[in-house]
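Whiteboard transcription, Tuesday session. T.W. wrote the structure tokens on the left side:
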């Protein structure tokens, strides 16, 4: 697989709300013989990391699809660090029965986190599933304190509350809420270390950061643990790869984090991959030429994206 096998399209789409300190989503879309792939690593990632994102994009553009065992995927609504009233509205409008709430954002207070989680629980009702994502912001002692406080809202799990595997192991002995691994999986030299050291109760797997659908499925099989397929804040092109991975898993005990297209102000396809009654249909996302033109990146962004694309490609050779 190489860039010689594909046609390149560059897009830049604004976010509805600031998410992960990102206000625009920039992506290189690859059009190949098997379909479309997406290369959209976050701006601060080095070539050694972005090469995996490119491997994933090339796989989607040129490789055969895995066999699907389901045609729809249950998904969670993702709630960014927004005020409680906006969080409530996002959940009710989504019609999802599971919500993932971003907390512990820089500059956000403990009271604001609690108010946001409370609003989401109110919107979901007592039967809805509620999970929180900390992005490794806490120390072990702080995590234990905060998780025990937040569990008043009946948490399904807490995603990446601390930064390291050692800290996750220590934390698991201090709380009763399941711990999900994200960053320590996708940023690890050996993703299986989390599994072998029993540092988590479940794994959050993201196709682009892991290097593609096939690698994601292989890791899920090797781990023999429950997994949640989640997005890396992609356009519908990237989300389609996540849906393919989720559709091919033998079991899918948790709703997946693949409903993030709702956080974009625009889409590259006429029929974007958006949730309907908490589900997304497993299908391809074919960009529309007019929408590619509408969201075409400006010259400065194009130059930067192409430079990152070349650097990632050099790491693959």
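and on the right, the sequence the group agreed on:
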């Amino acid at each position: 697989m190489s860039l010689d096998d594909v046609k390149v399209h560059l897009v830049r789409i604004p976010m509805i709300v600031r998410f992960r300190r990102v206000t625009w989503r920039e992506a290189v879309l690859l059009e190949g013989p098997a379909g479309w792939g997406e290369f959209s690593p976050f701006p601060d990632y080095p070539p050694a990391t972005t090469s995996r994102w490119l491997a994933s994009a090339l796989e989607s553009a040129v490789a055969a699809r895995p066999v699907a065992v389901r045609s729809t995927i249950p998904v969670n609504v993702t709630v960014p660090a927004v005020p409680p009233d906006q969080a409530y509205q996002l959940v009710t409008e989504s019609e999802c029965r599971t919500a993932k709430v971003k907390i512990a954002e820089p500059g956000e207070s403990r009271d604001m986190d609690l108010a946001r989680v409370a609003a989401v629980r109110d919107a979901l009702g007592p039967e809805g599933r509620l999970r929180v994502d900390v992005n490794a912001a806490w120390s072990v002692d702080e995590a234990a304190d905060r998780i025990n406080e937040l569990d008043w809202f009946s948490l399904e799990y807490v995603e990446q509350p601390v930064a390291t595997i050692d800290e996750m192991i220590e934390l698991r002995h201090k709380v009763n809420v399941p711990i999900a691994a994200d960053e320590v999986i996708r940023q690890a030299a050996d993703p299986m270390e989390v599994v072998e050291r029993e540092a988590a109760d479940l794994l959050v797997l993201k196709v682009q950061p892991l290097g593609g659908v096939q690698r994601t499925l292989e890791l899920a099989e090797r781990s023999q643990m429950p997994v949640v397929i989640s997005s890396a804040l992609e356009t519908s092109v990237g989300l389609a790869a996540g849906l393919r991975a989720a559709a091919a898993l033998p079991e899918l005990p948790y709703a997946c984090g693949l409903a993030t297209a709702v956080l974009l102000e625009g889409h590259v396809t006429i029929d974007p991959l958006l949730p309907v009654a908490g589900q997304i249909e497993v299908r391809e996302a074919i960009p529309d030429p007019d929408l590619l033109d509408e969201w075409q990146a400006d010259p400065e962004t194009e130059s930067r994206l192409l430079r990152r694309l070349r650097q990632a490609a050099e790491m693959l050779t």
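Someone added at the bottom: Residues 299-316 form the longest helix (18 residues).
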